[in-house]
């Protein structure tokens, strides 16, 4: 029987299995190869909160969705075309997302009585056997058996052999999509360079998976996804947290400041720490503090000393940092606070995504302590946004929130990386030393941006005291004077407002500059909105998309833009937060569109809403 | 710099701000001793930073003509850690109280000590919350009657010396506001120690806890109730140094030198001896108890151990040596790239 080769424009594959099955590795390997072959891609890992949840259970299912295509790709895909499942629980947890007519590749060993029971299928029911999957194309492969056979002579133990199962699956998928495996081969050689036996074993299984597709007559269809017509340039693949880390390093480098990163491990922010800790040769100081409060306070100490101080966490940790962020608004020193948001409140959904900490960033302090807030919209945008957060922090002497979330933090996409010389300069001037005969130094005297000088210890003649108690205008001395307090509260607010003079104007991402409907988004909803709006526009709907990066202060022209549309729709992965700020500032009847499931919007959801509003 | 140092005096460390502690507060003496000692340390004024938390003692930086930060409650140690990690050349002084350092800031205290940043930590211990007007503190003795403990405190107090040594502090000393000469000497030694130096200073709060330490500070009782330790010298106290401490195994016993006991058998203080320091830290009896041990003052313990900031910088230097100074373009490019033409 000969195999056919069918060309596809785009394909979404979901790899799913136990969290110990190596699913994330399988997914990232296929992703890297797809990227190198010129596909546009977007990925989204979905893992359980527990590192090793009980094997075979629904709670233990780990997933990795990859969307790749010869067309532009903005999201990991609404659902998937191919579902690879290592066990029954993985099938049960992900079947809902598989498109009708989609392909299921099932490891039959994961569908024995024990696994079926763990996946909570009723006694005697095996979905592979009972016809319930007839809407799909099901390929059954006994991956475990094949892997063990391939390594029968390796001298390795069964347990160790079974760890290579994911390579069989990867090899098979490479065959199915007609992919060159050299990138993964090189990866395995590097990863196990100290264990040649493991290199050999993994390569053997990888090739066995590929050959299985080639030689078994079960599979008669192979697919091809051609390279995408992408913007010209040199690309690399990048994950959101990795991009954020690079953005911070770049900002430190361009500003000639030492980077101090004070943090406490928390999902999903920790990967920024892991990334930064690798680059000590850039002079980066990472400090794993004893708790969230020490993380932000040590960072404030470093900023006071003249470093670029960055702290990071997710919602629960940000709550703990609140008092210290308030201190930084009083000290008026640079401080970047990264919040990689996750589902809340409290511990909430640590490994799921949400955009529910915007109002926490905006108002989550005692008294009136305004800060700047900016948000990243895609994995690679985390680079630009983190960089910009640093720029605003040091040029405006203020705390700045950098908001990302679990979806883009762990998602990845191709990125035309910038060259260092093209990055926007960051201007830093410490206050200069003074002689005894000079006029007395005034630590809270402001410039035209309302920004006070950054006067760091070690500079002669600048000795001064700062603190959390209200300060007298200009001198910075303690003051309980009522008029002075009002003046200072206003000055701190105006200082943040004035940042609007130093940020770009809001642009329309897509669609007409005036018209019936504007979708106003922020953060990680970008890809879904983008995809939905492209589709709606192609079908003749009069809809536009604007995505706000600068959330406080807003770009100066945002109000004008909003007034150009009959209706403003605001999708958010929360119960309506930016919409409160927009309604409050611009007094417009924006319509909220909210999803609070710990999952991103699908583009279909947005598209359907557009159609509903415009029909 | 040389000329500036030569001309510095205590007055140069006085700010133009009115000192606002209550008249008679022990903090005045501590401020005076610090301002007196600093000119002798040979540190340019602009390289000195005082960091404090919240509480009466934490107003201290406002009165010091150096760099200063009055931070938030309990967090001075954390702020100082970040500052010292990035600016190891600065002379960093943390000023804290018993509540600030051991209650709300207890976590940062122990972590500062284990990391051994080269900073000086002055704990003004008055065994009370003064700024909030008189609640018991984590250092208040059991049974202490205060506004928040009208029937007596049922909190067992911290023993600051044992706490610090338990957290592997590399320097612990105790002094008092009422003994300026001793306090100045201890401050100098604290500064000279490379690592986190804890100086617990008994400080009288004459408004909310007046006389908490008077048995240690007042003439009539001081000699019997205090034990001033110095390395190489026997543990002697009492009128005319007539009493001593002898170690019976690990148990300290008071001996009377006027009744035939020999001074040669006494415990000789050695600030490098961790085990003896631990025993000394347990000289923490209620002075009202019969047969109690005198309260030690002076340097309990001092050891050399690497400082966090030095190790941090050493790793950076090692990384630069091994990989070369970071190249931003190479970093942005990563390992795998592809080009679309």
Structural summary, described in words:
By secondary structure, chain A is α/β, with parallel strands linked by helices. Helix content of chain A is 36%, strand content 22%. Chain A is built from 20 helices and 22 strands. In chain A, the strands form five sheets. A seven-stranded mixed beta sheet of chain A has the order 11-10-12-13-15-14-20, with helices on both faces. Chain A has a six-stranded mixed beta sheet with strand order 3-4-2-5-6-7, sandwiched between helices. Chain A has a four-stranded parallel beta sheet with strand order 19-18-21-22, covered by helices on one side. Chain A starts with a strand and ends with a helix. Chain B has 341 residues and is α/β, with parallel strands linked by helices. Chain B has a domain at 2-212: 3-Layer(aba) Sandwich (Rossmann fold), CATH 3.40.50.970. Chain B has twelve helices and twelve strands. Chain B has helices spanning 2-7, 27-37, 76-86, 98-104, 106-115, 160-166, 180-192, 214-217, 219-225, 274-281, 308-323, 328-333, and strands at 48-52, 67-70, 91-97, 120-125, 171-176, 197-202, 226-229, 236-237, 243-248, 251-256, 295-302, 338-340. In chain B, the strands form two sheets. Chain B has an eight-stranded mixed beta sheet with strand order 2-1-3-4-6-5-11-7, sandwiched between helices. Chain B has a three-stranded antiparallel beta sheet with strand order 8-9-10. In chain B, strand 9 and strand 10 form a beta hairpin. In chain B, helix 2 crosses helix 7 and helix 4 crosses helix 5. Classes of the chains: A alpha/beta (615), B alpha/beta (341). At the A-B interface, helix 1, strand 9, helix 9, helix 11 and helix 12 of A face strand 1, strand 2, helix 3, helix 5 and helix 11 of B.
